[in-house]
């Protein structure tokens, strides 16, 4: 049976509506282990051997995170900086994650339309994600899917809608579950 590890990069799941519910839904799946970086490393001191072991042990890795200024939050950036080391993720002997299956699961509070030239976020989301994907490309993982859901803002002071977010959370989690099933049943 395939092992799935989910790396949750939200900096405070207790204050998240969308990401916390997605993690709750996905974490209930069989053979799935969730690593919540905010709980494990509130001091940002990453246990590199433990994280590398979790990645090596997994058949499928899911990176779950909200977009923060069009990339992953600081705790996930620190995690990548610390965990994707020379001769682990890249370099002459850095093949430990080569061909490892990966799914990106991303939530965004903004609209999809705002990720265009001339709008609030100035350029397409794919342009922003290029730099975020660099460590994954360097590690030569197999990025099998990227699932992005926009309008995940539940703060009514910012124009968000709780009912919309609740509906989108279920749809997003269903899309991730389908991607997991498709990936492990290939």
TrEMBL record:
GO molecular function terms listed in the Swiss-Prot or TrEMBL record: electron transfer activity; FMN binding; NAD(P)H dehydrogenase (quinone) activity
Q: Does the keyword Oxidoreductase apply?
A: yes
InterPro entries in the cross-refs = Flavodoxin_fold (IPR003680), Flavoprotein-like_sf (IPR029039), KefG/KefF (IPR046980)
**Domain spans labelled Flavodoxin-like fold:** 2-156
Keyword Ribosomal protein annotated: no
The alphabetical list of record keywords is: Oxidoreductase
PANTHER family this protein is in? GLUTATHIONE-REGULATED POTASSIUM-EFFLUX SYSTEM ANCILLARY PROTEIN KEFG
Q: What is this protein called?
A: NAD(P)H dehydrogenase (Quinone)
Species name: Shewanella sediminis (strain HAW-EB3)
Query: What lineage, starting at the top, does this entry show?
Result: Bacteria, Pseudomonadati, Pseudomonadota, Gammaproteobacteria, Alteromonadales
């Amino acid at each position: 049976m395939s092992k799935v590890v989910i790396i949750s990069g939200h900096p405070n799941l207790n204050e998240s509506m969308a990401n916390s519910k997605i993690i709750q839904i996905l974490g209930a799946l069989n053979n799935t282990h969730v690593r919540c970086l905010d709980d494990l490393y509130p001091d940002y001191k990453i246990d590199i051997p433990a994280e590398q072991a979790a990645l090596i042990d997994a058949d499928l890795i899911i990176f779950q995170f909200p977009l923060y200024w069009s990339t992953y939050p600081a705790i996930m950036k620190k995690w990548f900086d610390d965990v994707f080391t020379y001769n682990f993720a890249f370099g002459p002997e850095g093949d430990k994650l080569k061909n490892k299956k990966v799914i990106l699961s991303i939530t965004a509070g903004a609209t999809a339309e705002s990720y265009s030239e001339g709008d609030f976020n100035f350029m397409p989301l794919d342009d922003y994600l290029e730099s975020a994907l660099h460590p994954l490309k360097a590690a030569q993982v197999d990025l099998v899917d990227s699932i992005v859901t926009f309008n995940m803002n539940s703060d009514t002071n910012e124009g968000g809608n709780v009912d919309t977010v609740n509906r989108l959370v279920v749809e997003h989690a269903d899309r991730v579950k389908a991607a997991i099933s498709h990936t492990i049943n290939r």
